[in-house]
Write a structure and sequence with these properties.
six-stranded mixed sheet, alpha/beta, 2 domains, two-stranded antiparallel sheet, globular
């Protein structure tokens, strides 16, 4: 969540490219009044053509994400982003991975306004089968691409990077971004290495 320094142009660009929506900073600062700039005060800019985009969010639900409330933080961010995607009239797909495999939490469809019924129950634990999660997402994106070759597709990987194997970059996503949930005192920097291997943007959740 931005702090009062969010009016810096460089930080605006960094924040905007990490999230599926675009924040209208001038209107947000007016809307907040004299108080702090909170999530509820944010005003989002609608961009043309975003109704033709599929936002695929791949959520790490492994045991390491249960520590330090990282999964709870990720679910809160997921809820916020889904609201943005709804405003943009975009389509949403959500994949979760944990334990020994991956699962579809939300199949590709128009984002809905009410989402607590499926976001709140998301649990986690066990290993980090990131390769399975990314592969399942890519298979889902291939189906979407075959149905609509012109649809733009973006994939956001939400993870603390606690995996020893970096999966291949999804072949059917036009753009990929890694959101880093590593909050431990000693950083391993694995999420950043995933982004580097994929040749995509990387940013820490604290920047949001």
């Amino acid at each position: 969540m931005p702090d009062g320094r969010g009016d810096n142009p460089g930080r605006q660009r960094e924040f905007s490219r990490l999230g599926p929506g675009v924040i209208h900073w001038h209107r947000s600062l007016i809307h907040k009044g004299h108080g702090p700039l909170t999530r509820d005060a944010l005003v989002y800019r609608r961009r043309r053509g975003h109704g033709d985009m599929l936002y695929c969010l791949v959520l790490d639900c492994s045991g390491s994400m249960l520590r330090r409330d990282k999964l709870a933080l990720a679910k809160g961010l997921l809820s916020t982003w889904v609201q943005q995607i709804y405003v943009l009239r975009g389509e949403l797909a959500v994949i979760g991975f944990s334990g020994s495999g991956a699962r579809v939490l939300q199949p590709p469809a128009r984002a809905a306004v009410f989402n607590e019924d499926w976001i709140a129950p998301i649990g986690g634990g066990g290993g980090t089968p990131m390769a399975s999660g990314v592969a399942l997402a890519d298979a889902l994106l291939l189906q979407v691409r075959r149905r609509n070759p012109d649809k733009r597709i973006g994939l956001w990987l939400l993870t603390d990077g606690r995996t020893h194997r970096i999966p291949p970059r999804p072949a059917h996503a036009d753009v990929c971004q890694v959101v880093d949930f590593e909050t431990e005192a000693v950083s391993l920097g694995r999420a950043a290495r995933i982004a580097q291997a994929w040749g995509c943007a990387h940013g820490h959740v604290n920047a949001l």
